Amino acid sequence: MSKETSFKFILVGSKGTGKSSLITRYTKGKFFSECPQTLGVEFVTKDIYIMKEKLTVQLWDTAGQERFRSMTRNYFRGSDAVFILFDTSRRDTFNEVSLWITDAKEYTNKNCVKVLVGNKIDIREREVSTEEAEKFAFSNEIRYMETSAKKGTNVEEAFYQTAKFLYQKSKDVMRKSSRNLLSKTQSAIIETTDNQPKKSGGCC
């Protein structure tokens, strides 16, 4: 993979689920109790290293308000991964996850990784259990992780492990492509050799 390799991650979910805070924690290592409301779509980048190769991760932060929903759909295109957030202390945000999953599956290609993220696990009063969220994610054939932007719990892992999965997947595709090309080249050489006219024997 080249040094220009980049992955596009888009974060979606209802208002107040901590999308901006999660990105800020990941890119700056900081948490702000008062975070400005995202209007429309914003994005930042972060360089990471996987197997000593430099990759750039684009993190797209989207507004959770309904009036920005149609705008958000436009930014699904070209995404390598979609992180669908809900607040584990607010069931209403979990109830809206299905809508975001539907959008993610409709507006991205089949190779795009979908990750359900239960954020704000630092809040003890949970309304959505880990077991319920895991079962829901399994039934929708997507991954599930829990994070806390405030404490920094699993934030690095959520993004890094997804990038690593995509990186390894890209490597596998490249290796398979190289093997196929080599196989076709060898077949062409053999075919060319077989089709060459054979010299007849005998005296002049």
TrEMBL record:
GO terms for molecular function: GTP binding; GTPase activity. Transmembrane segments: none annotated. CDD domains: Rab. The keyword Transmembrane helix does not apply. The keyword Cytoplasm does not apply. It comes from the Eukaryota. Keywords: GTP-binding, Lipoprotein, Nucleotide-binding. Belongs to the small GTPase superfamily. Rab family. PANTHER family: DRAB11-RELATED (PTHR47979). This is Ras and ef-hand domain-containing protein.
